[in-house]
Amino acid sequence: MEKKHQTLPSEQSKYLITIHLETSEDPTVTRLLSIPPNFTFEQVHVALQIAFNWSDIHLHTFNVWLSDYRGPTICDTPCGPGAIKLRINSGRGGGLSDDEDDVPTKLESDITLAEVYENPNHRGKAVIGYEYDPGDSWAHTFSLIGRASPDMNAQFHAPPDLEVFCFGGEGHHVAEDSGGGEGWEAVKEAFKKGKKGDPDDLREWYREMCANGEKGVFDPYKWSIFDINERLAQTFCPDVLKPKGTKRARSDSENQESV
């Protein structure tokens, strides 16, 4: 039987959240998303996979810290004993019992964003982290900006009933299985230096074998906000998509594709 999540009084408008991928530099990789408070962490996981163009081929985990301030990164939050107050996962690869460090664990389909952010015991102090691929340890940090205004979708020429929307961001998506931060920097450096500076054939690996690789010219700053929003719409609100061949109104947000 599907669990019915409690509707909290503040679930009137979507959260506006900046998600920052910790290990990428020059450029950093961020996405600014509006997400409904009643979204489960299972749905949030799907949205993140789309926003960062991951391939969903590895395990993932959410962690919740408590902080007396809203630090921009996981490293700026308390990391001592007992700092992690809640672990949220899919139940794949590791059961649902509390871990050996005594951190309570919940199934991601059983808890919503609002149940974390609006919990009266730590409202305003919850810092959410999302780790994708424990091997490469791609750490993403949530920064809750506030609430999306009701007219924000209209300002970006987006249908009003889109559940998740990307309003901005920075940076090309990171390559799956590139070896974490150092490996990703090596891939970018290989493209920067060209054939003579790529003794390990990282460019060919990225173009031909990487799960989310791409052919053609590589630009670490290039990303497509339109492609992300189209995929988000296909996943979370397919009925709002226009038929093929319908001319699409351009939005100012598309100018950020090569920011």
Total count of helical runs of at least 4 residues: 6
Total beta-strand segments: 8
Secondary-structure content class: alpha+beta
Oligomer: single chain
User: Which value, in Å, is the CA radius of gyration?
Assistant: 19 Å
Q: Per DSSP, what share of the residues sits in E-state strands of 2 or more residues? A: 15-25%
Uncertain stretches of 5 or more adjacent residues: 5-11, 69-82, 242-259
Arrangement of strands in the largest sheet:
5-4-3-6-7-1-2-8
Task: Estimate the mean pLDDT confidence.
Answer: 81
Based on Cα principal axes, name the global outline.
Answer: globular
What's the SSE pattern? EEHEEEHEEHEHHH
Molecular structure report:
The chain is of the alpha+beta class and 259 residues long. The chain is 20% helix and 20% strand. The chain has six helices and eight strands. The chain has helices spanning 41-51, 113-117, 152-155, 180-193, 202-208, 225-236; strands at 15-21, 29-35, 60-66, 84-89, 105-107, 126-132, 138-147, 165-170. Strands 5-4-3-6-7-1-2-8 form an eight-stranded mixed β-sheet, with helices on one face.
Concise overview:
The protein is α+β, with helices and mostly antiparallel strands and 259 residues long. It contains six helices and eight strands, in the order ββαβββαββαβααα. An eight-stranded mixed β-sheet has the order 5-4-3-6-7-1-2-8, with helices on one face.
